[in-house]
Amino acid sequence: MEITVTTEAMERLQTISEGSDQTIRINGELVGGCGMNVEYFLWWDEVLPDDLLLHVDSFTFVMDKETLGYIGSTQLKVDYRPQQGFRLVTPEQILAYGLQVKERWGVS
């Protein structure tokens, strides 16, 4: 997996992290009934033993095997637009937009 973080996304991450090194989890979860779909989340988190680690500047992006399978691509771009929030984009599709990085356990 190759991850690219745009300049806009990196600037926003540096602003909201207050300059400290951080770990960001990219998480995909299956949701829905008959029409299954994947919702993506960005969380400040810790590295777990089976995580894939991707280092970009002072940030470590982590994801589990299920999320990697949901993404379905070897390339992922993390972008940020002030009106849309963070976006997760592969060469094939926009996976999610309107994302904010939140604390995993409920504190934003």
TrEMBL record:
It holds the Pfam family Fe-S_biosyn. Signal peptide: none annotated. Gene3D superfamilies: HesB-like domain (2.60.300.12). InterPro entries: ATAP_core_dom, HesB-like_dom_sf. Residues 1-102 form the Core domain. It comes from the Bacteria. This is Iron-sulfur cluster biosynthesis family protein. The lineage of its organism: Bacteria, Bacillati, Bacillota, Bacilli, Bacillales.
